[in-house]
Amino acid sequence: MMKIKVGVIFGGESVEHEVSVISAMQAMNKLDQDKYDIIPIYITKDREWYTGEMLKDIEVYQDLSLIKKYGKNVVLYYNKGRFVLQNKKFPKSIVTDIDIVFPIVHGTNVEDGGLQGYLQTIGVPFVGSDVYASVVGQDKVFMKDIWKASKLPVTDYVWFYDVDYKQDSEDVIKKVEKLDYPVIVKPATTGSSVGIAVCSTREELINGIDDAIQYDKKILVEEVVQHLKEVNIAVMGNYEHQKVSEIEEVISSNKFLTYADKYIGDDNGKLKGGKVPVKGTSKGMASANRKLPADLDDKVRKEVEEVAIEAFKALGSSGNSRIDFLIDEEKNKVYINEINSIPGSLAFYLWDAKDIDFSSVLDEMINIGVKDYKKRVSKTHSFDTNILQGFAAHGGVKGLKGMKGKLR
Questions:
Q1: How far is CA 202 from CA 170, 195, 207, in A?
Q2: pLDDT (tens digit, 9 = 90+) per residue, 284-332?
Q3: Which domains does the chain carry?
């Protein structure tokens, strides 16, 4: 049986670059090597693409100069019916072809529809959400607006651009203070809790906004849920079919789950100097403190499951997404917080709690990607007509004669 060539893309120009590397290493170790030929594709922070077997070893990322020295600097494109990786440097030979791309990327520039747009433009099959769902799944303002319009339970919030704040900070603060303190300030498009702050006073709010605008031009501020229990659930599928994982309760000593809670865990796994933790020191999101399954009564559990599926469908998501919820335990009120279109560690631990192992999760994600591709190519995207012929026949080209010199 011919193996399926899976190009696993990770890294990229994102504050979550290192987290992406960890998630990709975990996945590549669990992909069925009898079924798949695994081709690592690492995007550096300066947007160069590299491939090579060495990229499967996390210890390589301790010295990024080794990748540039020994890895193959490539570009992915469509060539005579194949999707190929070609050397950018001489000799410009084709390194390999790829059957399907598996993006395991987090954050701005890669998870937010940018990479998905490129993959869709060249036509290569890929795993996960399309451009539209990726965009709204990364932008917390877009997702909140869509969920609110879909009558799903979200906390009260306001948002603004950095330029609005710089031009009239007092006006923005007045709008924010129509919410009840404490509030939580978030950059709209970052993930992994980067740039987030809980604020109980105006001074803290100003400091939180000043920090958040370092990461994003759009800022979201929302009311903090009191008597908080934070739970997460994964949804697998597409717009046609969905299923849910086990629900976890996230435990943090902080007011919200921080980057360190999610990915570092202890001093041994700290990210130092932009490097990735060495082998064995970080388990990604799998290392966060949690109660699994979450301690929920049947009514709340059912509500979380149902709202998660509706939220997934409302955004047009596909693949395996983790959806985070906030529960006010005193009021027994459920709020949907955000979706992670490509969650850290691909949320494999939530499926494992339902006796679905990581390899099976990856298999199903690839199968959904293939089905999405078949659906996409079955739709009409162009017509067998050339309007330029009619344009020329009616003298449309005459107006271009004066442009001859400019077009050269």
A1: 11, 17, 9
A2: 555 568 899 999 999 999 999 999 999 999 999 999 999 999 999 999 9
A3: 4-127 (3.40.50.20), 137-152+226-251+289-367 (3.30.470.20), 157-223 (3.30.1490.20)
